[in-house]
Design brief:
Layout: E1 2-7, E2 17-22, E3 25-30, E4 36-44, E5 49-51, E6 54-56, E7 90-100, E8 104-110, H1 115-121, E9 126-135, H2 136-149, H3 158-163, H4 171-178, E10 185-188, E11 200-201, E12 205-213, E13 216-221, E14 224-229, E15 236-240
Parallel strand pairs: 11-14
Antiparallel strand pairs: 1-2, 2-3, 4-12, 4-15, 5-6, 7-8, 7-9, 9-10, 12-13, 13-14
Length: about 260
């Protein structure tokens, strides 16, 4: 068995899940709140490719994907000059600002008809839609201009997102930032966590699911709470049964 992907559930009627290959067949391991997840992680190698309802394995040691199976989205590096042989990002795009508690903010672009889906996929706590434009090229140009002038990054490290789990957004910092723009819409996202401390960053796939926040999975095990970047699980061979290895205590985590 191998973990070959994950689904955040954002924008779909599916619940969050880990995508597991079992002999080439695809299974979706629920990440619903209260679900008991119980896998022991083994070696990690390329997750191969999901082809329809089946899985094509790959033994290349690169993880989560080797060069042949890496599907990195080239548009993520765009600043207005198309990096493809032919531009294909026609259609309305939104420029947005995402907030991650307590005070980390980023600029972004999405071509989704509902930009809140993209914000939830990233695990944003707040989102502000700045404007809609006619295509992706224009959106990326404006994004690059804002990033240079603000400056706002166009990406946020997972470690920063983990630091904010269970903490509120700094309202004053958020308002000061938005006062610099003409904002079309503001969104507030709730993920249902009831935590009294920031969970510990860890790579494991066993424990009681407390919830998900974008690609972050929060688990409780032995009285401690852990935040798992689901991308760090992709490529791991797994066996049913909870991991026996010792885990960190949460005594040093942030108390609110």
């Amino acid at each position: 068995m191998q973990i070959v992907g994950y689904e955040t559930g954002a924008g779909t009627d599916r619940e969050p899940s880990l995508v597991v290959s079992n002999g080439g067949d695809i299974e979706h391991e629920s990440l619903a709140v209260g679900h008991e997840l119980a896998y022991t992680l083994g070696d990690r190698h390329c997750a191969g490719a999901v082809d329809g309802s089946g899985h094509v394995s790959c033994d290349d040691p690169a993880a989560p994907y080797c060069e042949s199976h890496d599907s990195t989205w080239i548009c993520a590096r765009c600043t207005g000059t198309c990096l493809k042989a032919e531009m294909d990002c026609y259609g309305e795009h939104a420029i947005y600002i995402a907030a991650f508690a307590p005070a980390t903010f980023k600029i972004g672009v999405t071509g989704r008809s509902d930009p809140t889906v993209r914000l939830r996929e990233q695990g944003a706590d707040r989102g502000a839609i700045l404007q809609y434009v006619e295509d992706g090229r224009i959106a990326r140009e404006i994004e690059a201009e804002i990033a240079a002038e603000t400056p706002l990054p166009d990406a946020v490290r997972v470690s920063r997102k983990i630091d904010g789990v269970g903490r509120p957004v700094d309202e004053d910092a958020w308002r000061r930032l938005l006062d610099r723009f003409d904002v079309e819409a503001i969104h507030d996202f709730q993920y249902g966590f009831d935590l009294d401390a920031t969970p510990i960053a860890e790579t494991l796939a066993s424990g009681t699911v407390l919830g998900t926040k974008g690609r972050l999975l929060v688990l409780e095990r032995s009285g401690a709470r852990f935040a798992v970047d689901m991308r760090s699980l992709v490529g791991h061979d797994v066996e049913p049964g909870a991991t026996p290895r010792a885990l960190q205590s949460d005594l040093g985590s942030f108390g609110t």
